[in-house]
Amino acid sequence: MCGIVGYIGFEDVKEIILGGLEKLEYRGYDSAGIAIANNNNVYVCKEKGRIKDLRGCLDVNVTGTLGIGHTRWATHGVPNKINSHPHQSCTKRFTLVHNGIIENENELREKFLKDIEFTSDTDTEVIVQLIEKFVSEGEEVELAIRHTMSELEGSYALAILDKEDMNTLYAAKNKTPLLAGKGEGFNMIGSDAMAMINYTNNFYEIEDKEFLKITKEKIEIFTIYGNKVTRDTYTADIDASDTEKGTYPHYMMKEIEEQPFVIRKIISEYSDENGDLFVEPEIVENVKACDKLYIIACGTSYHAGLIGKQFFEKIAGKPTEVVIASEFIYNMPLLTEKPLFLFISQSGETADCRAVLVKVKQMGFKTLTLTNVKGSTLSRESDNTLLLYAGPEIAVASTKAYTAQIAVLSILAAKVNNKINIDIFKELGKIAYTMETLCDDKDNYKELAEKFLVKSRNCFYIGRSMDYFVCLEASLKLKEISYIQTEGFAAGELKHGTIALIEHDTPVIAVITQESINLNTRSNIKEVKARGAATMVISLKKLSNETDDIVIDDVNELLSPLAAIIPAQYLAYYAALLKGCDIDKPRNLAKSVTVE
Ligand code: AGP
């Protein structure tokens, strides 16, 4: 998926677009481009690579007060200059940037564009050529755009310039995030609020199959049929400083260190005036009323869901199943009579999750979204939303959102039915303190990363029960930013085959925070050590040995994943740093995957 931004107003648009794209780079960074309406012409500059590479090739003398920009995570067409956006129609009258995937591009080429010579391998170029074709057949621009929308199958957030009308910025949206930002004497569009927050905090949510006609004075929203839509604006609960690195070398380091604060913020946001747990009653009732909770998520959020299942079953006594979103659609489990679907998504835009949300809503089931982004697609389309209050998470590798998800899940479970009388707020308060002490041990993590990881081509995290779920997240962190092939493995399962991979100096990191399995995992450590592995142990103090490498102050075992993941986040950070990898924007990845 990609990021788009557009501006029409009175200021020179270059820095506004480039700055907005930099805020969106976390969404995709294979290539970038900008188009500026300048003296009855449209100047286009696009380049493979990052925004900084685009800056390097931009003609600084080109100015204009209308422009669009794009930062790309390639889906169709390799990431190169030709395939980067913006794309132009054959006469160069129309210029367009697109986030999403057009599923029927080939049929449209066949049906409407056989005589067109395409310049790129992208699905996006089909859109801009279609608009030109319909205009060349006599349609007004607005109608041609809405006609094009009616032919498209798939997802799109579009920003469009018409060389013959330098006073208008067009936009359109279906299944891919797009917001319009209202300013004084200017207006903007963007893939999310952060791209515009330096200029306005006054946004319109744009719904599927809506079309926008934007001038510097006003924003008009229409349905695909041309009916005018009126809608109030809203303000995003972020401010511009949240999206800056400050003195941190990387967003990931900043976000790791924000975790204690986030836990404390969650406690306060989910407290009532007496300091007791508060969750919207309708949400609590919906969870109580269901006969099974289905947690749907991807990646790190899926890993948080695995921990959440433990809370709902052990604290609330609610049967729970955790399903990877992209699997659910094609392999739906046998559902119970009264299921409730809980979507966990930091961005609230993950297409795999949204596809499930659309399906289960069609089946008439209730839905709840746990997300970090108010007003996100999943949030808007679910019956209810629980917010993470983690602040913008910019680094592609999720850290504070993961622990925030786990914290909110524990609060919800305890609010539904606290069968074990756990004092969640007291335990979360201890977790926040323990996180702070763990954040102070950076030199140790850096040393361990250098000793065990930097020269390794593979690595294993092993654990049992809750520790196994932590290992899944710990291994995703390590592989996605350091590119070391890492597996999170159930410690008891190793001997059933995978232990064949253990050879001299293979790093094996054991996580031990559950008393019931302490000795079992320690015997697994001996098994791999006997086969040459280089072992490291992360353990809870009450279970630790003097040879353990990282010892965590004692916390409630149910909430121990919130603490045990901190060293793993740092180990991944330092392994990537020492290997010279791009920590905040790892290769091939994007922060929010808005394509299935
Ligand atoms: C996390 O480190 C990854 N970048 C990725 O797995 C992410 O958790 C996943 O894409 C889900 O994103 P979401 O929480 O925004 O839905």
User: What's the number of helices?
Assistant: 18
Compounds present?
2-deoxy-2-amino glucitol-6-phosphate
Gross morphology is globular
Structural class: alpha/beta
Question: What's the quaternary structure here?
Answer: single chain
Biggest beta sheet attributes: 7 strands, antiparallel
Within the CATH hierarchy, at the fold level, what is the topology of the largest domain? Glutamine Phosphoribosylpyrophosphate, subunit 1, domain 1
Strand order of the biggest β-sheet = 3-2-4-1-10-9-11
Distance between the termini: 10 Å
Strand content: 15-25%
Which characteristics define this entry?
single chain, Glutamine Phosphoribosylpyrophosphate, subunit 1, domain 1, Rossmann fold, 7-stranded antiparallel beta sheet, 24 strands
Write the layout of secondary structure elements.
Elements: E1 3-8, H1 13-24, E2 31-38, E3 41-48, H2 51-57, E4 66-72, E5 87-88, E6 94-99, H3 105-112, H4 124-136, H5 141-151, E7 156-162, E8 165-174, E9 179-182, E10 187-190, E11 203-205, E12 210-214, E13 219-223, E14 228-229, H6 251-257, H7 259-269, H8 281-289, E15 292-297, H9 299-314, E16 320-324, H10 325-328, E17 339-345, H11 351-362, E18 366-371, H12 377-381, E19 384-387, H13 400-416, H14 424-439, H15 442-453, E20 458-463, H16 466-482, E21 485-490, E22 507-512, H17 518-529, E23 534-540, E24 550-552, H18 561-578
Parallel strand pairs: 15-16, 15-17, 17-18, 18-19, 20-21, 20-22, 22-23, 23-24
Antiparallel strand pairs: 1-4, 1-10, 2-3, 2-4, 5-6, 6-7, 7-8, 8-12, 9-10, 9-11, 12-13, 13-14
Helix pairs in contact: 3-4, 4-5, 7-13, 7-14, 9-13, 9-16, 14-18, 15-18, 16-18
This protein binds 2-deoxy-2-amino glucitol-6-phosphate (AGP).
